[in-house]
Amino acid sequence: MAKFLFHVSYTEEGVKGVMKEGGTARLAAAQKLAQSLGGSIEVFYFAFGDTDVFTIGELPDHASAAALALTIAASGAVTVKTTVLMTPAEIDQASKKSPIYRPPGK
Questions:
Q1: Mean pLDDT of all residues in the chain?
Q2: With the C-alpha atoms ordered 94, 99, 104, 106, is the resulting torsion angle positive or negative?
Q3: Residues in contact with 13: Cβ distance below 8 Å, sequence separation at least 6, in sequence order
Q4: Number of domains observed in the structure of the chain
Q5: In-domain check, residue 59
């Protein structure tokens, strides 16, 4: 399974929902969403600043991660940015590949 970092920021409507239901309700909702896509939530932290929640989820594939992000963004209560996470072993595999590339202007 692939791992993804979701950067979640609440809209005014979303903040009101968190204030009404609390943080653990949002964690439970995130877990249920990930499970419905065959995945799980590994980390869920609220934060100060531009990003209100940092979540690391494990999902079967990129399409599942996109479905998760699209679903929560479509609610209008949040905006979401998704970052694909890679293990050191995956970087080892990538560094051993020999792609052919021509830089611009060369």
A1: 96
A2: positive
A3: 76, 77
A4: 1
A5: yes
